[in-house]
Specification:
It is built from four helices and nine strands; from the N terminus they run ββααββααβββββ. About 25% of the residues lie in helices and about 20% in strands. A hairpin with a 4-residue loop joins strand 8 and strand 9. The C terminus is likely disordered.
Length: about 210
């Protein structure tokens, strides 16, 4: 590459060598282009390309966030479905603490919250029941005129978490929980606590 008197640049394609094969048409186009670009214009082109690359990188990085607020314009939209007895509850799984100051409390379209309570949390010891957490959630939601949908959990999807009380996991109740298995017979991830059988006291959980 060399500069001429006008500050223009020419490319000597004969020096490129076999390591960079360029056909005749591309050579002609590139030679014409570089002859027309002064050193100042080349610098401007580099700046423009840099800005474009940064912009594209930013778009790629944040593309998952571009719809993060899209739901807001539909919050007060009328329901197109004819009015019926269907009620809508926001599902919180076992994360009951998240109902506090949650946005759904301010919208009439939601009847209440569906919360999962593990058996072991409601009966920490055999025959001793504690429904205090259920009462806490019920009273909190009631202040906002919301209902509580109670989901009782005795089956889990992880060997690390057992939803039944410890006394159920004894020989008296046949171990209380049995692991899940996949269709091919390999061990699954969860525990089916419905394997309990004790006909003497009428406890049947299938």
């Amino acid at each position: 590459m060399a500069n001429n008197k006008a500050g223009q640049m020419n490319i000597n394609f004969s020096a490129v060598g076999k390591s960079c094969p360029v056909n005749a048409k591309i050579k002609t186009t590139m030679t014409f282009t570089f002859k027309k670009i002064t050193s100042g214009r080349l610098l401007l082109s580099v700046v423009v390309m840099s800005v474009l690359c940064i912009s594209l990188h930013a778009q790629k990085k944040y593309r998952n966030e571009r719809y993060s607020d899209a739901y807001k314009k539909y919050l007060n939209a009328p329901c197109p479905v004819e009015k019926d007895s269907i009620r809508h509850f926001v599902y919180f799984a076992r994360d009951r603490e998240l109902i506090h100051d949650h946005p759904f409390l301010s919208y009439s379209m939601f009847t209440g919250a569906q919360i999962m309570y593990a058996w072991r949390d409601l009966e920490p010891e055999k025959g001793k029941y504690d429904f205090s957490i259920v009462r806490q959630d019920y009273e909190y939601l009631e202040k906002y005129h919301k209902k509580l949908f109670v989901q009782l959990q005795d089956v889990t999807f992880s060997h690390k978490y057992k939803a039944v009380p410890d006394y159920v996991l004894t020989a008296e109740y046949n171990g209380g929980a049995v692991p899940q298995y996949n269709d091919d017979g390999s061990p699954g991830d969860g525990l089916q606590n419905g394997g309990i059988k004790k006909y003497g006291n009428g406890l049947h959980c299938f």
